[in-house]
């Protein structure tokens, strides 16, 4: 695959995959499988399908043992690295941590790590399906609905975080938006593509974390679907550069997410 250092997969960890399927089906238009993927073995893992037939990511069911061990509903992103073990060594030497050691799966080698400020993410060296060796993952898109369109890092130390991801994944940082007393909203790029931003940790937020903004066809339709299907609005739609709108919410199981899309009414 040719998408090294890109976000190539997104995963929802939830104790209620069926509830998540109902919620994200109504809000985003996804279809989450009703049965676990046989390739995942003993783990309850289900694919998230888009209306165009592609996949948007996966759902990991949190069992009682995982919850007892501290796992909580959340979205996590996977960053492609060609050598998971070398990446782990470099990340830990730079002050990061390992939360799940390198593991071989049928789809590739993965590990869960965190940056020095504590924001968790996966690294992965994927095994592409036969005949797709030269293709890039399409779960991230700057402008398409039913894909993640923006990756946002809220962190206790933006300068250190930007230096970390630049060092380990080759991302760039150009441009910023002034948010007043909060600080700067600093844009990050992979090559010439804007993939997201880094911002200071907001008051009341307990820890540094990645957030992901999912593309929707109509922000007002999605907004109504959140509350109608048991979710919670945490930030109302706000116009962003380019004329679209972004908002934030919690799904019924408590996983935080963002949405971005046009206002059609």
UniProtKB/TrEMBL annotation:
Coiled coil: none annotated. Gene3D superfamilies: 2,3-Dihydroxybiphenyl 1,2-Dioxygenase, domain 1. PROSITE patterns: VOC. It comes from the Bacteria. CDD domains: SgaA_N_like. SUPFAM superfamilies: Glyoxalase/Bleomycin resistance protein/Dihydroxybiphenyl dioxygenase. Residues 6-126, 147-262 form the VOC domain. This is VOC family protein. It comes from Sphingopyxis lindanitolerans.
């Amino acid at each position: 695959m040719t998408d090294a250092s890109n976000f190539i997969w997104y995963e929802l960890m939830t104790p209620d995959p069926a509830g998540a399927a109902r919620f994200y089906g109504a809000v985003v238009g996804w279809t989450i499988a009703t049965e676990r993927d046989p390739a995942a073995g003993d783990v309850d893992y289900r694919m998230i399908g888009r209306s165009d037939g592609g996949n948007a990511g996966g759902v990991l069911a949190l069992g009682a043992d995982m919850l007892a061990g501290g796992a909580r509903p959340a979205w996590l992103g996977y960053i492609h690295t060609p050598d998971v073990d070398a990446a782990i060594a470099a990340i830990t030497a730079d002050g990061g941590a390992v939360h799940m050691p390198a593991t071989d799966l049928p789809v590739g080698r993965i590990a869960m790590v965190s940056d020095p400020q504590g924001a968790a993410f996966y690294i992965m060296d994927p095994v592409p399906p036969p005949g797709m060796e030269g293709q890039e993952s399409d779960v991230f898109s700057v402008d398409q609905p039913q894909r993640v369109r923006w990756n946002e890092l809220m962190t206790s130390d933006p300068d250190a975080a930007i230096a970390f991801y630049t060092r380990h994944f080759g991302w760039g940082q150009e441009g910023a938006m002034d948010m007043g007393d909060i600080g700067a909203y600093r844009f990050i790029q992979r090559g010439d593509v804007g993939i997201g931003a880094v911002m200071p940790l907001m008051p009341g937020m307990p820890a540094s974390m990645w957030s992901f903004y999912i593309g929707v066809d109509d922000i007002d339709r999605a907004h109504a679907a959140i509350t109608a299907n048991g979710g919670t609005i945490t930030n109302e739609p706000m116009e962003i550069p380019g004329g679209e709108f972004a908002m934030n919410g919690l799904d019924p199981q408590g996983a935080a997410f963002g949405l971005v899309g046009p206002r059609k009414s």
